[in-house]
Design a protein that fits this description.
There is one protein chain. By secondary structure, the chain is of the alpha/beta class. Helix content is about 20%, strand content about 30%. The protein is built from two helices and six strands; from the N terminus they run βαββββαβ. The protein has a four-stranded mixed sheet. It is globular.
Length: about 130
């Protein structure tokens, strides 16, 4: 038994090509995982076939919109609805799109990290206000 594991950072267009190639080659979508950072999200797409596990990471700025991969991996719609609702990842054409009703949560996009205001520099003898 031979196991293969990869993690590669790619741009979004390359990810779409890889996802379609993996689907045509019989891979399954194992998971899609988002992690929030200030001003962007990292999203990792994982595909599996037998003992091969391939992971592709994309960097998604908060203001950017990406396309769904649910057209060729229908199960992606659950992961994508979750990323949209919890992290604020903008994904167009999810089918079906639960319109932020996948979870019952009190706070909109609770894991989204906005870009913070610039740091204010104060002199040693000044008081910090606010």
């Amino acid at each position: 038994m031979s196991e293969a594991y990869t993690l590669e950072t790619v741009d979004i267009e390359t990810l779409y090509k890889i996802a379609l190639e993996r689907q045509r080659s019989g891979y399954r979508l194992a998971q899609i995982c988002a992690t929030a950072f200030e001003g962007y999200n990292e999203v990792i797409y994982s595909f599996a076939l037998d003992y091969t596990f391939e992971n592709y990471k994309i960097i998604v700025p908060i203001e950017s919109e990406i396309n769904t991969i649910s057209d060729f991996f229908p199960s992606a719609m659950l992961f994508e609805n979750e990323m949209k609702e919890l992290f604020g990842v903008q994904i167009k054409s999810i089918n079906p799109d639960y319109q932020d009703k996948l979870y019952r949560i009190a706070v909109k996009t609770p894991f989204k990290k906005e870009v913070k205001d610039a740091v204010k520099v104060v002199k040693k003898d000044e008081e910090v206000q606010g």
